[in-house]
Amino acid sequence: MHNVLITGATGFLGSHIAERLSKSDINIIGLKRSSSDTWRCKAFEGKIDWIDLDGQNDWKQQVIEKEPTVIIHCAWIGVEAQDRNNWSLQSKNIELLVALLEITQTLKIDKFIFLGSQAEYGNISSKVFEDQAVHPVSAYASMKLSCLQILETYADLNKISWIWLRVFSVFGEREADNWLIPSVIKTMQEKSAMDFTKGEQKYAYLYAGDFARILLSIVKNKIDSGVYNISANQTQELKTLLIQLRDSINPSFSLNFGAIPYRENQSMHIEGDITKLTNQIGLVDFTDFNVALSKTLNYYLSK
């Protein structure tokens, strides 16, 4: 039986991981702040053993007493677009990582899993492999890479298995309202038009349910330490996706493609090659994109 500590379990990705693992009879320890809203976890909240990071008791000692064998570090301060170049804010993420690593001195940890980001590669316009040179263009990406260096050095010195996941575009239920798909769905219900770029960007959109199943495989299987891309295996053109949403929600809605210029160094093709990962966990049975999009759409329309 695995005891898994998940940081950021109240967030979009963390909640999907917690939900999937809880359905597999894995004991979940959730590390959260006292101010964290647990609404994403309501359906399975009783299966999470919560520890309050800001509580009066020593949270590190509480974690040690619960003896997790796997740590999945999802928590990150400053994921919103307006915070990604706030160096002071982004640097605060190093402190929690170091605290978690210090805990492993007392615990027998099978693996330490960290959610990195495709942003570490910088501006990309093709499918990328893990051996491609990184070129961060934001404080967010730079601090992710700083954490990677810390994790790799610490884990190697202390003989801890570590897995760094460069996460590409993920969509699905319970995403924040200001992210692309939920914000577009809301606008299409309330307004008659919306401005966009030409919409030629291609993104490998990974359904959150598939993302969580991949994490379950990583928890259960022996995996070599290292950096792995985690991405869908096919791309969707943004324009086609928006037309599909429009036709399902409000066929008379005006999509003003080309009204907004592409930003400087706009990434036009964002996709990670996942061969390295599938060589470790086996082929991924991805949910059909149209089925996943329909599930996502029905979730937001029913809110």
Structure description:
By secondary structure, the chain is of the alpha/beta class. It has 2 domains: 3-170 and 204-233 and 270-286, Rossmann fold (3-Layer(aba) Sandwich); 173-203 and 235-268 and 290-301, UDP-galactose 4-epimerase, domain 1, CATH 3.90.25. Helix content is 36%, strand content 20%. It contains 10 helices and 15 strands. The chain has a 7-stranded parallel beta sheet, with helices on both faces. The longest helix has 19 residues, at 139-157. The radius of gyration is 19 Å and the shape is globular.
Q: Could you please say which CATH topology of the largest domain applies here?
A: Rossmann fold
Spell out the helices and strands N to C. EHEEHEHHEEHEEHEEEHEEHEEHH
Strand order, largest beta sheet: 3-2-1-4-5-7-12
Distance between the termini: 36 Å
State the shape. Answer: globular
Average pLDDT taken over every residue = 96
Structural class: alpha/beta
Indicate the proportion of strand residues.
15-25%
CATH homologous superfamily identity of the largest domain: NAD(P)-binding Rossmann-like Domain
- Can you summarize the main beta sheet? 7 strands, parallel
Unreliable stretches (pLDDT < 50, length at least 5) are none
Key attributes of the depicted protein:
303 residues, alpha/beta, Rossmann fold, UDP-galactose 4-epimerase, domain 1, 2 domains, 7-stranded parallel β-sheet, 4-stranded mixed β-sheet, 10 helices, 15 strands, 36% helix
Outline:
With 303 residues, the chain is of the alpha/beta class. It has helices at 12-22, 59-66, 87-91, 93-103, 139-157, 180-190, 208-220, 238-249, 275-281, 289-301; strands at residues 3-7, 27-32, 48-52, 70-73, 111-117, 125-128, 162-167, 170-171, 193-195, 202-203, 206-207, 226-230, 236-237, 254-256, 269-272.
